[in-house]
Each structure stands twice: as C-alpha cells, then as structure tokens.
Amino acid sequence: MRLHHVAYVTRSIEERVDRLSSLLGCRPKGELVIDEGQGVRIQFVQLNDGSLIELLEPYGEKSPVERHLRKGGGIYHTCFEVSDLEGTLDRLRQSGDAIVVREPMPAPAISNRRVAFVVTADQDLFEFVECEA
User: What GO molecular functions are on record for this protein (predicted)?
Assistant: First the structure.
C-alpha cells in the first residue's frame, strides 16, 4: 500500500490550479475529467517530486462533495494504491472499524482503474485504488 493522492474540494478547479501553481509550483497532470457517476469535475495536479493532489469540484445537483464545500471545502479524502483491492476491502470490513461506502467502480480520472471508498470509525474518508495492471 502506498499513498496515491490527497483530494481537496474546491468551488473552482481553474482558480485552485492557478493558486497551487503559484504557491507550490505544481502543474496539471492530464486533462480535466467530468465523472458524472460521482458527480464531480476532477483535475490532478503534480508537485515537483511527483506527488499528486486531486481537485474536486461539484458537478450536478446531487454531487456528494457539495456538502463538504458548504462547510468550507479543503481536504476531502486520502487515497491509497493497493495491489489487492478486494482483499483490502475484505480486511477492512472484518476489522469492524470501517464501512465500505462505495463498492469498487471504474474511475475515469485514473485510467478507469477501480476505486472504492471507506469511512473509518474516526470518520476518515479513504479511497483505495487498484495498482496499474
């Protein structure tokens, strides 16, 4: 398991990309993606060391990130890359300290690799993405 990215919710991806470029020297990685299934616009930005930040902007009336944005936005989730997505989810379910809130599904912003979301007993939201084949 390794850290893949940290996700932030923002009102405007374009403004946030400009601000992060100025502050941290990062640059967009890939194209902006609209994920209608998750109700978000997504843009990854990459720091000089290769670290990734995912920017999420609500898309549509039922976007799950809208509520977080109304509270001020900011950090939304942490994503880890795992070699065995199903095994990781099974282990987390068995721990009793986490609930899978979104079963594995393709993520258009990450080359359609499967992702799943988990909420922990401490109310942390974690995303898990399967390693590239």
Answer: metal ion binding; methylmalonyl-CoA epimerase activity
- Of 4, 35, 7, 17, residue with least CA distance to 124: 7
* pTM of the shown model: 0.93
Residue ranges and CATH numbers for the domains of the chain are 2-130 (3.10.180.10)
- pLDDT tens digits, one per residue of 32-68: 999 998 899 999 999 999 999 999 999 988 899 999 9
